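sanity check this chain:
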Amino acid sequence: MTRIGNSDLDVFPLSLGGNVFGWTADRDESFAILDAFVAGGGDFIDTADSYSAWVPGNSGGESETIIGEWLASRKPENVVVATKVSQHPDFKGLSAANVRAAAEASLRRLGVDTIDLYYAHFDDESVQLAETVRAFGELQRDGLVRHVAVSNYTDSRIREWIDIARSLGIPSPVAIQPHYNLVHRNEVEGAIIPIAQEFHLGLVPYFSLAKGFLTGKYRSTDAAGQSSPRAQAASAYATEQGLAIVDTLARIGEAHGVSVAATALAWLRAQPTVVAPIASASRVDQVADLLDGGRVELSADEVAELTRVSEWTPASV
């Protein structure tokens, strides 16, 4: 178990992504995935109020609704649910009124009295940051939210949020959710991890498997023939270096008896301040790999080898 920042949330070090619920996993498959995750020791679920508004026929909130129905049906103990605000079609942005209305809507869909971890999903610079910080603080004061967090914020805006919170006597964020994985490292390692270390924040990375590339499914530099948008996005990482990373993951994973995906998640867990990478499963048979990713421990030499093979230096201007 791993504590999220300086909060009282102690979780299994792998978060199940709820972005697929109501999208590539229907209600029954979503229930089966959630059942398998919890049965295997998982207890940390990540979603957002906007999931999955991009699907034709959906309007947003489908993932929260499915999770809420599952919670009501199963009544699991000690499950931590994180959700986010700012992108739902009916609750855009981070004005105080919108943050309150969106949180109340999420609570109804989830069927809970309190959201364990509530993220500002994307920064909204059209609203004074102090207004947003105060709104999140009021949700905590009123018991609607236990802890707050930020997603897709720059280091300077995170620092500004913390400064405002401290000046107002409001609890600071306990977590940051950045895009971070073996093929997308530099920005997080250069700017986000240092501020997380400074303020004792936990990282909960998304795209931990690089849209599927770090499962080992894409093993050719030829992206032609990848039909789905998701496959095309994943295959974009299939450069010579990307394939070398996957080959190294496969070799190290084989030594531990786990998959490429589990090994990639284990490397991420070994990075400073990382609490629990987020990874999703569209089928129940994919859950075991994710759980392995939360348990397998790589040696220091294995972590260092993966770090070396995935180093990337931008071309000089």
Notes: Residues 240-256 form the longest helix (17 residues). Residues 2-211+260-299 form a domain with the TIM Barrel fold (CATH 3.20.20.100). The radius of gyration is 19 Å. Residues 60 and 89 are 7 Å apart (CA to CA).
